[in-house]
Amino acid sequence: MVHEIIGLFGASALGYNQYQAMAAHHNDSIRNAVKCMTPIVCPGEFYKSTGFQNGVLRDRLVTGWIKGQIFTGTEDDSIPYDDDIQNSLHTSFDYGLNNKFDAANEAIDHFVSRRYPKADGSLDVAGYYPNSRGRADMDISRAPVNAAGEGDANGTYNRYKNMEVPTYNISGWWDIFIDGQLETWAYMRKYAKDSLGNRDLQKIVIGPWAHQTIASRTTGDITYPANVMDVVGNIDVTEDNLPISEVLQSEVISWFRYNLNNVPGMDLGKPKFRLHANGEWQELAPLLEIQIPSENFDISFEEMLSFMNGAGGLKDFPIIVRETIFNGTVYDGPITIPALGTPLIDGLDGQPIQPIPNVDFKNDIPNVRFYVVGPNGDGEPANDNVGNYWFSSDSFPLLDNIAWTKKYMHQNGTLNNTAPVTDEGYSIYVHDPDDPIRTIGGANMIVKDPQGDRDSQGQMELTNPLYAPYSLNRPGIVSFETGPIQDSLCIIGFPVANLWAKTNPGGITSGPTDTDFFVRILDVYPDGREYFVVEGCVNARAREYARALVKGKNGMFDYHNKGFPRDEMEDSLDYIPFSNIDIGGLYEYKFRLLPIAYTWGKNHKMKVLISSSNYNRYQVNPNLPIEEGEFFRRKPGDGQTYMYQGKEMAPRVAVQRIAFSNSNQNYIDLPIYSPGTMTSTLEIASVSEIDAFVYPNPATDQISVFLSKNGTYLLTVYNLHGQVVVSKSFRDQTNLTVAEWDAGLYIFRITDKFSNAVVARKVSVE
Predict the structure, then answer these.
(1) Is 9 helix (H, G, I), strand (E, B) or coil?
(2) β-bridge pairing 282-285 and 425-431
(3) Alpha carbon 528 to its chain's center
(4) What are the structural domains, with CATH classification, of the chain?
(5) Are 532 and 549 contacting, i.e. CB atoms less than 8 angstroms apart?
(6) Cis omega before residue 651 (within 30°)?
(7) Tens of pLDDT along 173-192?
(8) For residue 377, what are the contacts with CB-CB under 8 A and spacing of at least 6?
(9) End-to-end alpha carbon distance in the chain
């Protein structure tokens, strides 16, 4: 049998620890180390996904998860005394506290709000901020290593460079870690080569799933078509049912077979079982004894599992039989043990075992596969073939075939493609921190519906009478809706929201304050049902940080295709300051929503909901100014107050106003999938280690392209209609004559023919 260390793990402390363990030291896949992984709903980047999305605390996940880790230990009253933090007892005494509730709160404060002294005696910022010292505990990318791959606070290397591990990621659009796992996958793809220098063994599969519904057809209130199971396999594994014959045909098992036994250029042979020779004699019958097996017996993986499954026999099995009076040999040779007919282990399916499929993952399996969700059971024949298919790509977000299109919101509640041309006034709603909008649907795990009866996740139907009074038809929300879609509308990527808004705490006309804004996008079915699709949020104090995550610091790059990962070790975006806003001031908020691939069908409508709370997925903002470097953790109605500049302040009800005019445009910028369209990008850096310089730009006659590294490249030039203008190979520099080209913008796409790394530049010809 081939003995290797492999990783197959899901979303648990064990899974995250395995990621961290692999990042801690250089993983040399040529030697006896980790050969491959399959992280299922499990990231290595937590800050922006798990902890704080655009400056808003993921309340239920953070507090619920930490409490769960504390509360699942030994009960405090089960022992009289525990003074050893290293023993197997997990109690509040490990933290020097009197009970598990205090222990849980201390742990949450450490993650969110605790400020620790720095060397100079000043206080560090709370864990809430992206430049906190705790960031290195949350994100692999923020824990530097030295040239040897060892942890070093002064290191200048990204920890992902340690991880030469082929990785097969599985996630879902409504998993709690979807954006974090995408970011982790992209970092792995950028930095983690295998032993042969390949980067094309970093795979990710994203289905219409939540954290607990991976490889299921039903999530939330939608049961998706059977093709959802095409990639991972339609395998119903339960405590009492292990369909081993189906499991072995799945792509995940082929992934391990490929990396452990079918590596190109490495003849490792097929895995096998060895039943070692048994030197002991056992009674077979009166006066007869047997040695079984009488010599080492090797059998293939599939044959042994088929025998255990009761569906196959053992051929040429060596035995010796002797009589016990004179110890004379009666038989010495092979026999055939017939199939037992029933499995040796309860729960196995008893079916014959077929050979595990041989799959060339490097060349035949796309790096990205995701499910494009579409209409389900809407009664529209025209939508029978709309959406609900698997999409293959080399990257996410997509680099090509995306037409960014703004859907503008208007004061009268309409949502369309036309920007306001006059001052339309305001949409006004009230945000009460003690009466929040409730979370219904989305990327949740331990969030429950308002009745506490079921998980609130995925595409839940918001007009359900159990939910509408809490999250749809109630004060504190403004909505905007398109007319019926005439054909279909497909988005793939990270939508971006742009809002212009004012906030006025009741009875207060001036001074600093803070607040949040939430955007949810819905699919309105022709029969009136309204299903959750995707969401996003922004904290007012973190507005410049959120904007930078979209557009880059000082607008240095275009968000329309800036995917993952970000810059190198010290990402300057981490240090963009958070600041209070002025009461009554008009501010622009630009922020990225969570990723999605979704198609609205014919006669469906798109609806956008805006509110200032979404509880208990997110903490509810108290509408109070916050001191620099601090965070105020609270729950609705808990009676807490906050000290700001020596003044005790209680949570305040605020009047929120969304402003609509030709100069204050509110919109959702949608990454609409439109084959034949080239995206206008300033750069594509998610998988590239090359850089290109195009000069002059703008150009009128001649233009030159220079590459940062020697190599062989393919240059493809597109106009903005997606048509190829030039396609040519070159080494590290090439020249083009553009004098006869039409004036306008062109996309220069350069591909490294060896590594398939891509870089693109937008060029203007005059």
Answers:
(1) strand
(2) unpaired
(3) 31
(4) 1-49+140-216+225-262+358-370 (no CATH), 56-127 (no CATH), 272-337 (no CATH), 404-671 (2.60.120.260), 682-765 (2.60.40.1930)
(5) no
(6) no
(7) 999 999 999 999 988 887 76
(8) none
(9) 66
